[in-house]
Write a structure and sequence with these properties.
This protein has 11 helices and 7 strands. The chain is α/β, with parallel strands linked by helices. It folds into 3 domains: 8-172, no CATH class; 185-261; 264-392, Heat Shock Protein 90 (2-Layer Sandwich), CATH 3.30.565. The chain has a 5-stranded mixed β-sheet with strand order 3-4-5-7-6. A two-stranded parallel ribbon has the order 1-2. A hairpin with a 2-residue loop joins β4 and β5. α1 (23-55) packs across α4 (117-146), α2 crosses α3 (105-114) and α9 packs parallel to α10. The longest helix has 56 residues, at 174-229. The model is unreliable at 1-10 (pLDDT under 50).
Amino acid sequence: MSLAIPPERADDPLPPARLAYEGQTWREIAHLLLNLPVAMLGFVYVTTVVVAGGLLSVTVIGLPLLAVGLIGARQLGRVERSRARKLLRVRIEEPSPLPKVRDEGYFGRLWSSLKDPVGWRALLYDFMRLPWGILTFTLTLVSLVVLWPVLPFIARTLTNADRLMVRGLLSPSDELERRIAELESDRGVVVDTAAADLRRIERDLHDGAQARLVNLAMGLGLAKEKILDGQADDVVAAMVDEAHGEVKLALQELRDLARGIHPAVLTDRGLDAALSSVASRCTVPVKVTVELPFRPAAAIEGIAYFTVSELLQNISKHAQASRATVDVWRANDRLLIQVEDDGRGGARLDGGSGMAGLADRLGAVDGLFAVESPVGGPTLVTAELPWRDRSAG
């Protein structure tokens, strides 16, 4: 059984020329013969888009037409990358999609499309391909008739030039475009997380403290009416006592809610005291060790606090552990967190315990999140955050 040759990487050396007919040789010949019709289609598209967009740029439809043309050029580039993968065995990743522009109006979206480097490179590729398509089509067709013995050598030489053009103009701009795509995804995660937190706060206020304060107002109103009616003091005292209990419960719920937003102990005393406070509320004994030379930026400190807080909640609810440890330290430019428990294990990022959400939150700030939790335990969660000094914000 023959094994398929894996596609070459975009940064691999070009394949050497060979005087042999094989499967790849026929694919290269097919690619060269297709160059002319594909190049003609691309050239016509480019000239139409550029000329029409340029001539109509003084009108309201010129720039929008050019923006649409760049989007279409992206699709032509996608077709060419697919052709290169199938016939030339060049493995090229797709570039990042156009960034989503939020709340910048029509002109913001138009400008984002007009400055798209992927679309402009695809236009340049299609524009310069017509003379090359004519040359390669002609040479390949002639070689099929009169230069048959050396056609594999000619095909490999010509398609190596094609490989270089595809890599140079249609491949992603490597790290920059990948980073743009990552940042766009991370921004969506941050927005979704913030919206979920706001909904949680609204729900907690509505169902908790607000409901208790409404009951308190009603109770005090009834007590006032009884006082005005001259009813027994013991009845009024009982109603006031009940109202006093509602006040204490409402205050406790408001304190818990404030702690969930940003605890005062974290602001005042830092991670060591804040994590010790969280650990004291865990249902299993927790040993907390924080070794930091000084406090990190408030944003990093907050993410670290809520990460540990949610992990300890998971231990209380799901782990069936008898003990747990929390270690926090700095290593070079990273803040490292390890939370370990001796529970039943089996925790997964897709297990519905909030782990995936934590991973997304850390990823949104260039952090890392890893879970090692074999069935039967123990469970070790490692989180990394970029270190930023507190003075930098």
